[in-house]
Design a protein that fits this description.
The complex is a heterodimer of chains A (205) and B (293). Chain A has 205 residues and is mainly alpha-helical. Chain A contains 10 helices and no strands. Chain A folds into 2 domains: 95 residues, Rna Polymerase Sigma Factor, Chain: A; 97 residues, Arc Repressor Mutant, subunit A (Orthogonal Bundle). Chain A is elongated. Chain B is an all-alpha fold and 293 residues long. Chain B is globular. Chains A and B meet through helix 1, helix 2, helix 3, helix 4 and helix 7 of A and helix 1, helix 2, helix 3, helix 4 and helix 8 of B.
């Protein structure tokens, strides 16, 4: 859907003959160059962010793509140097929309399966495999309200400052600080609960 | 930077932080970035920008725009694909965008013998990847960083470069990746800390980025760039959450550079100190059975 729409924005036909290459120097070329640079620099981070913000893995690629398509339409509004903050701001909204419309409940229902898989692992170094840790992370994050989850992800995972988060999420700085405090507490509770469940399973087995 | 006291930080314990760090190795499917580029009508520009990101700043003054134009068009007009970039020379200069800063590297086509100089000496580091937290400051992007970041490319102020790479200029001049362009520096702004330390929450994101850069470099046939990034990461976060991943990637980078003996030695050292794990399995998969104990 969006893919074809965006493709039409290409300012030049692929079959352009050799001699016509120089027309690339126009505003369209600069625009494409900027977009491609944004994509190269931020795509993976945005993909990861939408995942951590609750978009299921099956639709994360679509969501990340949607973020950049929105950015391409608003490219003129993005100040140079502000690309990351803009993209994360869009990612917050895209992820929120998708979370509302889709699989939050489904994701959470996987808890038993995740715990079963994690506790059945042989753990020679007493460390869970990264993938299992990530699944537990999903479960823990899923217990947070959306606004707290966003604050935690942006600060603790993405490394943004509180001021930058205020800018990204368009909320007052004091609100960021208070959300972060609550988010950490909620995340800690969720993680502790999961850990306790995991440990009780291991004792059983 | 974290601009308010982290009164709630202590609420997160080690397990919580391990959970948070586990996001590091989560990746989109292969080709996702390219598919997004296609969706945006950017297929050719994207490849050009990616190639340009891999080139050196060895010859300041070259018409960067010209290179990008050439990179953008030639392969497609000639129907040659990525391989055509090789014909453009291993080292070109490109200005990609104002936010990109200077990048250093060499480009070689995937799957071929590296068209790069020998591996950097172990003393070489590109560890000045500590992201500054002050958007809008005029900064310099350092080599081997700034790709796929959660923010504009990693930058460092003059002060930071001095602190992290006290002998950066002399090292840079001997870099196998080509010389690092002069840093057009400005008065340094206060930095959060270039030594966030292995356990600092902000270092998680930095470690993720560093591993991302290295993996991208490996994947796109730039093992020397990967090696520099990985050695920087190993030194900055010797006990970091991703230290094991860094070691595995380092072995891969050595192999990709053709330094087989060094790769075997490192693999053996790894296996001698690590318990059986998926990491050990990845290491073993890189070698034939008789090469490893």
């Amino acid at each position: 859907m969006d893919r074809t729409m965006a493709a039409e924005e290409s300012p030049r036909p692929p079959e352009a003959p050799l001699s016509r290459a120089p027309e690339l120097t126009g505003a369209g070329a600069a625009r494409n160059e900027r977009l491609a640079t944004m994509l190269t620099d931020h795509y993976r981070a945005i993909w990861r962010a939408v995942r951590r913000l609750g978009v299921p893995s099956a639709s994360a690629e679509d969501a990340a793509q949607e973020v950049f398509i929105i950015a391409s339409r608003k490219l003129d509004e993005i100040v140079p140097g502000g690309e990351a903050r803009f993209l994360y701001g869009v990612a917050l909204r895209v992820a929120a929309n998708r979370r509302r419309s889709s699989a939050l409940r489904h994701e959470r229902s996987d808890e038993a399966a995740v715990l079963a898989a994690a506790s059945s692992r042989a753990r020679p170094d007493a460390l869970l495999e990264e993938k299992q840790m990530r699944e537990l992370l999903e479960l823990a994050l899923a217990e947070l309200p959306e606004d707290l989850r966003a604050a935690l992800v942006l600060f603790e995972i993405e490394g943004f400052s509180e001021r930058e988060i205020a800018d990204i999420a368009d909320i007052p700085l004091g609100t960021v600080a208070s959300r972060l405090r609550r988010a950490r507490a909620a995340f800690h509770r969720a993680a502790a609960r999961l850990r306790a469940l995991l440990e009780s399973r291991e004792e059983e087995s | 930077m974290k601009d308010a006291p982290d009164s709630g930080t202590e609420l997160l314990d080690d397990f919580d932080r391990r959970l948070l760090r586990s996001t590091a190795l989560d990746e989109p499917a292969d080709g996702a970035l390219e598919r997004a580029g296609t969706a945006l009508g950017l297929a050719s520009t994207l490849i050009a920008v990616q190639a340009a990101g891999a080139v050196a700043a060895a010859t300041p003054g070259t018409s960067a725009k010209g290179w990008l134009l050439a990179l953008t068009w030639k392969p497609f007009l000639l129907g040659a694909g990525i391989g055509a970039f090789v014909a453009l020379g291993a080292v070109v200069v490109s200005h990609v965008a104002p936010t990109q800063g200077v990048r250093v590297g060499a480009h070689a086509p995937p799957g071929t013998a590296p068209a790069e100089p020998a591996a950097p000496e172990s003393g070489l580091r590109s560890e000045a990847t500590a992201p500054a937290r002050s958007p809008g400051r005029t900064e310099v992007a350092l080599p081997a960083s700034g790709r796929e970041l959660g923010r504009p490319p990693a930058r460092a102020s003059a002060e930071e470069i001095g602190r992290v790479l006290p002998d950066a200029p002399s090292r840079a001049s001997t870099s196998p990746l080509g010389s690092v362009a002069a840093f057009p520096l400005e008065a340094p702004a206060p930095l959060e800390s270039a030594s966030a330390g292995p356990a600092g929450p902000s270092s998680i994101a930095e470690q993720i980025r560093s591993v991302d850069v290295a993996r991208d470099a490996l994947r796109s046939g730039r093992p020397a760039l990967a090696l520099v990034e990985l050695e920087g990461a190993a030194r900055r976060w010797p006990d970091g959450a991703l230290a094991t991943e860094v070691r595995v990637l380092h072995v891969q980078a050595l192999l990709a550079l053709g330094q087989h003996a060094a790769a075997v030695a490192e693999a053996r050292a790894f296996l001698a100190t690590q318990p059986p794990s998926s990491y050990a399995a990845r290491i073993r998969a890189l070698f034939s059975a008789d090469e490893l104990p």
